Amino acid sequence: MKSKFLICPVIVGSVLLLPAVVFAEADKEELKRTTIESEEGMNHTETIENAKQYIEEHLADSFAGLYIDREEKQSGIVVLMFIEPIADEHRQALKTFAEQPEDLEIREVDYTEEQLIEKQKEIDGDGFEYDNFTIYHTGVDIITGKVVVGIDPLNEENVQYLHDKYGEELVEIVEGEQATTLEMKTMDNVMENDKEVTTQQGEERNFFQKIIDTIKGWFS
Q1: pLDDT by residue (tens digit) across 23-35?
Q2: Which positions ≥6 away from 80 have C-beta within 8 Å?
Q3: How, if at all, do strands 171-175 and 146-152 pair?
Q4: Among 108, 111, 147, 171, which one is least packed by beta carbons within 10 Å?
Q5: What is the pTM of this model?
Q6: C-beta atoms surrounding 91 within 10 Å
Q7: How far is CA 50 from CA 45, 47, 59, 99, in A?
Q8: What is the CA radius of gyration of the chain?
Q9: Mutual angle of helices 45-58 and 2-43, in 10-degree steps
Q10: Which residues lie across from 80 on neighbouring strands?
Q11: Are strands 104-108 and 146-152 parallel, antiparallel or unpaired?
């Protein structure tokens, strides 16, 4: 009889634990789904995909690029850029892809992202070492519509040289710094350091052992 009473709590306990496990897994899946939806909402994934498909069908020739502006809203505003005005029907159609009309903005710019990339390639192709300065980095800033060129030293003469060479409208000159790398500790270096420490410790033990042996010799 005792064995029956001993078994019953185990069975009941197991039955009670199963729903908790199921609920925990369900909560985990719900959290994962909520996280994915939140990330997609922050990145406006669906809005951008629908807008790009519409642009490809109707406005490909004037499309300049897009980005998410988070300065005014943490969730961001999708900014679509065109090199010429677009018709109101297209403007309204694009607005419908956003959850709220104010979450999508249309701007006119002078150059497409492709044109900026081509200018960057031109600058890179001419090399980075000049007589009076060095180019340390180049990059495309689609927000300002410029190719950013970092040089050192940065002074009026060097800036004017690059503007004369590549134009002022597409190129912004800033101060550049030479990239540095942190010293990497390889396994060989670590092992070598450990070996040196071990050798030093061994030498110290031998020294003290000799002293001990000498003292013992005095009393033998």
Answers
A1: 455 555 555 444 4
A2: 51, 55, 63, 66, 94, 104, 105, 106, 107
A3: parallel
A4: 108
A5: 0.60
A6: 14
A7: 9, 5, 13, 12
A8: 34
A9: 40
A10: 66, 106
A11: unpaired
